[in-house]
Amino acid sequence: MFSKFTKRLVAPPPPAAPIEVFRDDITQEYHGIQHADLSPGSLRVIETLQNAGFQAYLVGGGIRDLLLDKHPKDFDVATNATPAQIEALFKRARAVGRRFQIVHVRMGPEIVEVTTFRGRSEDSHHQQTNAQGMLVRDNVFGTVEDDAVRRDFTMNALYYDPKTHHVIDFVGGYDDLEDHIIRIIGDPATRYREDPVRMLRAARFVGKLKLNLDPATAAPIRQLAGLLRDVSASRLFDEVLKLLQAGYGRATYHCLREYGLFGQLFPETETLLSRGDDPHYARLIDIALTNTDARLNAGKSVTPAFLYAAIYWPSVHQRWQEREAEGNPRAQALAIAGSETIDRNQAYVAIPKRFTQGIREIWELQAKLERRDGRRPDSTLSHPRFRAGYDFLLLREESGELPPGLGTWWTAYQVADDAKRRALIAEVREHPPEHTEDAASKPRRRRRPNARPRED
Ligand code: ATP
Ligand code: MG
Description:
Blueprint: H1 2-9, E1 24-26, H2 28-31, H3 40-51, E2 56-59, H4 61-67, E3 76-79, H5 83-89, E4 93-96, E5 102-107, E6 110-116, E7 127-129, E8 135-138, H6 144-150, E9 158-161, E10 166-169, H7 173-178, E11 181-182, H8 188-194, H9 197-209, E12 212-213, H10 215-218, H11 221-224, H12 233-244, H13 249-258, H14 262-265, H15 267-275, H16 279-297, H17 304-325, H18 330-345, H19 353-368, H20 376-381, H21 386-399, H22 406-415, H23 418-430, H24 437-440
Parallel strand pairs: 3-6, 11-12
Antiparallel strand pairs: 1-10, 2-3, 2-9, 4-5, 5-6, 7-8, 9-10
Helix pairs in contact: 9-12, 9-13, 15-17, 16-17, 16-21, 17-18, 17-19, 18-19, 19-21, 21-22
The structure holds adenosine-5'-triphosphate (ATP) and magnesium ion (MG).
C-alpha cells in the first residue's frame, strides 16, 4: 500500500544521457593474454557458440584480472544466444537466476557461466525501476555494445574474442586499467540508484585491486550510501562476505568507512568507532581483518562467525557493561548483550541462523574464560568453540581492551599436564587478578549430599 502511494508521489530520477560507445580492438601484442591463461572450459563453450553462428566472448573480472597480472577467479562468457538457445546447444546446461538469467554450462570439472547480452536501460520496456530508480527486473536482450554499457565499471566491460585474440573495448576500460582507475560506466548517481550494491563493489575493487576510484565515480557515494537500506538484508550478508572475507578485507573495510558505506551495514558499530572513546574497538576490528586476510592468503579456512563476532563486539561490550550494571550476573549479562545486539542488527545485515549460534558462543566464552576455579577450566577447554573463543580473547588483549594475562594463562593451560594445570589454577586462587569473575567470586558453600531440594 504505502509503496504504491510513494511511487506516485516520488518522481523517478530523470533519464541520464545515453552512454556513447566506440569500438577499440586491442591486439595481442599489446594486451599479451595467452590462451594458456584462460580456462579450457570457457574456451570450449565459446567455440561451440561461435561455430553455431553466435557471437561469444570472455568478459568481466577474469579478463580484468589477467590484464592486471592477477590470477583470475573465474571467466564469464557473454553471447547473443538466448538462454533457450544456449540450453539447446549444450547437454549439461541449466538456466539459473531470476533478476538476470544466467546459464550454467558444465564442461568437465568446470561450470561456465554464460549470460546473454543485456539491453540498455533507456530503450527497454522489459526493465523496471522502482521509485528510487532501482532496477528490479532486467531481462531485455541487446547487442554486445548494449551489454558493455550495462556493466558496472569500465574495467569490467572488456571482451576477449578467442578467435581473433582481440580485447574489445567499448567504454575506455583498457586505458582506465592502464591508468589504474576504477570508473563507473555512465552517470555515477544514476548507476548507483539502479543498483546500490555497485557502491559496495567500488569499495571492494579498491581493496582487492589497489586501484584508484575516479573522483566523479567516488563523489556521490557518501550522499547515496543510504540507498543500501533498499537492498535486502540477506543479499547484504552475501556481499559483506565478498567484501570482508575474500583475502583483502582490511583494505576494503577502510574504504567502506571512508565512503560512509560501513555505517549503512553496521550502524551501531560505526557510531561507537567514530565516537572514538574506545580506540581499542577500532584496533580489534582491524586486527581481526588482518588475521582473516593472512589466514585466507595462506590457504587456511575462516568462519564468518569470527568476523561477525569482531564487528559487533563494540556493541556487545557496551551492552555487557550496561546489563551487568543493572544487576545481571556477569555471564548472563553477556548472553543478553549478545542476543540484543544480533536482534537489533538483523534488519541491516541478516545473518543466517546457522552462524548466529556460533557468534553467540564466541562471545559467551569470554565470560567462561574468566572463570578459572575448580573444574571450570577443563569444562571450558572441552567447549566445541573453545579455540575460537580463545582466539577472540587474544584479540581483545592485543587490541588493548584487556591487559595481557588471561590469554597467556590459557595458552599455558592448554599444553600443560594435569599437575601443571592444578598449579595454574592454584596460582589464580592465591593471586586473583582484578576485574574478573575470579576476583569477584566468593567461595561457594558445598551442598550437603542429602540436602532436600528447596521448595521455593
Ligand atoms: P570478481 O573477480 O571479484 O568475481 P567480477 O568483476 O568478476 O569480480 P562478478 O560479481 O563475478 O564480479 O561479476 C561479473 C561481471 O558482471 C562484472 O565484471 C561486471 O561486468 C558484471 N556485474 C556484476 N555485478 C554487477 C552490477 N551490480 N552491475 C552491473 N554489472 C555487474
Ligand atoms: Mg567474477
